[in-house]
């Protein structure tokens, strides 16, 4: 009788091999030139293989198909971040993903302290391929800045900053001797916070110092009282004021009387100015 052959068909991913096995005869001859019952093949595309089985001089043919499933083409973005920041990596080209961090999501949020390589494996219908991507970390400059300081109104104080790339920008720009140097002189009249910013590439860092301004009421305040004024509209001495009292008084009341003892003006505001009208 003519041998009754059987041979399996198989499915594999491109770039891998599979076994085709024939049975039902004594000897076999494949169209690949092999003379074994089993062959290991790794074609690039789906291929049909033919085997001839022989028993006692009688032969028959049978075919087996090896179906090739293409490997997915996985892609992922590359990111550059500043130290202390995070980045989102997004993979595409497959139906499921596995990252070397253990995550199994399409996107991965990372915040490495140094430049790091990440690997993602994408799978489609049992076939997978992987790709690597690099998250480059630019170190954000570290700044050392003056400690907070308190000065008396009318005085100045030196500020300093170091570190970074030695290029600085100070803000606010008022009452500073220099906006871009490392050691400006500050002369604020009110309490002010000064901040220095340094930029390295796309990364920047800012440090601040608080200069508190106090009034020296014992030595600088002017408590003298004018004894006359000229409210005639000429722009000179047109108002009666007590300058310098508002900075240092905690309780205030002023009353002005005419020569006959009648009160013609009063105020509880140390910043008052009287135009002479009654």
Structure characterization notes:
Helices cover 0% and strands 48% of the residues. With 278 residues, the protein is mainly β. The protein has a four-stranded mixed sheet, with no helix packed on it. Strands 9-14-13-11 form a four-stranded mixed sheet, with no helix packed on it. Strand 6 (47-55) and strand 7 (58-69) form a beta hairpin. The N and C termini lie far apart (139 Å).
What composes the largest sheet? 4 strands, mixed
β-sheet strand percentage? over 45%
Would you list the SSEs in sequence order as H and E?
A: EEEEEEEEEEEEEEEEEEEEEEEEEE
User: How many helical stretches?
Assistant: 0
As a percent range, the share of helical residues equals under 10%
N- and C-termini, Cα separation: 139 Å
Number of strands: 26
Characteristics:
single chain, mainly beta, four-stranded mixed beta sheet, 26 strands, 0% helix
Task: Summarize the topology.
Elements: E1 6-7, E2 10-13, E3 18-23, E4 27-30, E5 38-41, E6 47-55, E7 58-69, E8 75-76, E9 79-82, E10 87-92, E11 96-99, E12 107-110, E13 116-124, E14 127-138, E15 143-145, E16 149-152, E17 157-158, E18 161-163, E19 168-171, E20 185-186, E21 192-200, E22 203-214, E23 240-241, E24 254-257, E25 263-267, E26 273-274
Parallel strand pairs: 2-7, 9-14, 16-22
Antiparallel strand pairs: 1-3, 3-5, 4-6, 6-7, 8-10, 10-12, 11-13, 13-14, 15-18, 17-20, 19-21, 21-22, 23-26, 24-25
